[in-house]
Write a structure and sequence with these properties.
12% strand, single chain, globular, 5-stranded parallel β-sheet, alpha/beta, Rossmann fold
Amino acid sequence: MTALAWVRGEPGERAEEDSGSPAALDRIRAALARRTEANAQFFEAEAGRTAELCHRMAERFARGGRLVALGCSPASRSDARHVAVEFVHPVIVGKRALPALGLAAEGGPLPRQADLVLKPDDITIAFGLDEDEGPETREALALARGRGCLTISYRGENARREVTGAGAEWDFAVSGADPFVHQELAETHYHVLWELVHVFFEHRGLLEGRKARQVHDPGDSSFLYPFLGEQETDVESVLADVRASVRMKADEVAELRRQTLLEGAGALSAAAGAMRRRFEAGGTLLVLGNGGSATDAMDAVADFRLPPAGWPARPALDLTADPAILTAIANDIGTDAIFSRQIIAYGHPGDMALALSTSGNSRNVIEALAEARRRDLLTVAMVGYDGGRVAAERLADHVVVTRSEHIPRIQEAQASAYHVLRELVERGTA
């Protein structure tokens, strides 16, 4: 097991650093086991329905429908924003942008927003139905179904369906009691929906009201999406291949979670111990990221401020939260400064910065980590690919690397990493 815990300065300069503990490693292994089992159960059970749902969603998009995501609580808002940015800003080269909106509490009562926005061909996806804000979300979801929208929801398996999932045509239940695991599996699932809905655009003959064309030549994409070469009218063959792809993607993220959590165990343990000491001394956590990673920053902040029952709330700031600040800095100085300027404004010695990046090379993330170090903040980074500049140049005190080049899978594994980090802060690493 390798620990990537980068330490600034000369040996011994940071007394806060440690190499982890057996208790922390046992807790990380247990957290991984819970996720591996839940992931396997969920996607094996839901692969068929997921393939069918991708087909139905593609038909809605082809008719001009939009995806409208609903999330009332801070954690659910992060998922609503995340699924919207994935559909609007596709990270797979050559895939089309699809219209998607995220509706959250800051826009006013969710049912009122839904009533003004929703159209009959839209797709509505709801998060947090079993939370305190669930009744408002359920009312908006019921309105969506009454208007003719295709409706999707997620809930815990132990939550009563008549309370949480009622009204959603496509209701997905996640086993276990861990809300962090529920969120991670939902994130993987809506990423898979986004990835595989595009398959059906390559088969016009499978979309209601459209004529089939010649068989599509998948070209260089054939090794990733072999079903692109299927006959456009052979819906059963395409659905079978999409089901297989769902299972393959679930296996990929399971392996990536294993690599991220086990290889990063030392860094997670050391970071959690140092963060706990800083929280207890009055420190604040500042969290940042771009795009989908910005929504993960929202989620991480929500998890620290509004933790599971029995854990103390911890002070945390989301540096992606205020569009007026972000656009002012971007317009007047440049996008490289959108996070570093906020660290200048908010960061103090004894605080912490958590940076999320799928590449490890984003200029604004690198500038933010540099500014955080100048101000004596503890720095933690979660990065993808090979770690990029952040890992190669040791730009953070603790670095967890998710070794993949596939952005959705990186983000899913990083969600597991910051959730486990949150758990370790409270449940001890000594």
